[in-house]
Amino acid sequence: MLGLIFLVCLAASAVGGICGIGGGVIIKPVLDAMGVMSVSAISFLSGLTVLSMSVISVVRQRGQRQVELRTGSLLALGAVAGGIAGNWVFHLVKNAAGQDAFVGMVQSAVLALVTLLTLLTLVYSAWLRRRVPSFRVHSAAACVAIGGGMGVLSAFLGIGGGPINLAVLYFAFSMDTKKAAANSLYIIMFSQASSFATSVIQGTIPGFPWTYLQAMVPAGVLGGLLGSRVNRHLSVRQTDQLFSALLCVIILICIYNVRRFASV
């Protein structure tokens, strides 16, 4: 089981590094489907794995100048606050529900909906470009607010940011897929760091086997190294195709998880 978890995190982090989705959007639903840990433990470890992957990816891609430092930093600032708020919302829902299964079902349903909307946006991107204008937000306050919304969702879902970031960066900041991927990873790094720090400070770190942590974080680092290397050799079109296929798989896994948690 430990080897399988390592491979899942390695593959997810590599693909996440290529597409800019963090990897948590794959790790979280796959491990939920496997039922290897509690929902809380999976959310926490998924976020920590994504944090390690994003740090490596951002460092490796720093020479490509894909990150727009002003915009990315303002979004990251908002994502830090959003990450703290999202972590609080997660524990609020968990305590109100009193059981992990309900939280897992809500997370899976929201993630499936967000992923589906992102997939439709990508598939009909040419149609949308003709009818729905993309914008170029410059206001510092607007950037921080947008980053805050992204941080809340990513921390609550335990996915790092995933497809949410890419859709927002396209429509609000007119970024193509590769530039959005680089900026998404930059934002994810800060939002997950804040979420992790909040869990440590508040003492809400869930119980989990330490061997899982020792397998998942190194897998995130290796995946980040691999993904950043492959990303340099792919075109925007190839990245879009990989991203679309990945979204379809995630939607199917989330639907399975909703049904599984509902039956618990």
Describe the structure concisely.
With 264 residues, the protein is mostly helical. It has helices spanning 2-19, 24-34, 39-60, 69-97, 100-123, 125-131, 140-157, 162-173, 177-202, 210-231, 236-262.
Sequence-ordered SSE layout with sheet pairings:
Layout: H1 2-19, H2 24-34, H3 39-60, H4 69-97, H5 100-123, H6 125-131, H7 140-157, H8 162-173, H9 177-202, H10 210-231, H11 236-262
Helix pairs in contact: 1-2, 1-3, 1-10, 2-3, 2-11, 3-9, 3-10, 4-7, 4-9, 5-8, 5-11, 7-8, 7-9, 8-9
List descriptors.
264 residues; mainly alpha; 11 helices
What does it look like?
The protein is about 80% helix and about 0% strand. The chain is an all-alpha fold and about 260 residues long. Helix 3 (about 40-60) packs parallel to helix 10, helix 4 packs across helix 9 (about 175-200) and helix 5 packs parallel to helix 8.
Structural class: mainly alpha
Shape: globular
Tally the beta strands. Answer: 0
The percent of residues in helical segments reads over 70%
**Which series of helices and strands comes N to C?**
HHHHHHHHHHH
Distance between the termini: 22 Å
What share of residues are in beta strands? under 5%
Low-confidence stretches: none
**Major sheet details:** none
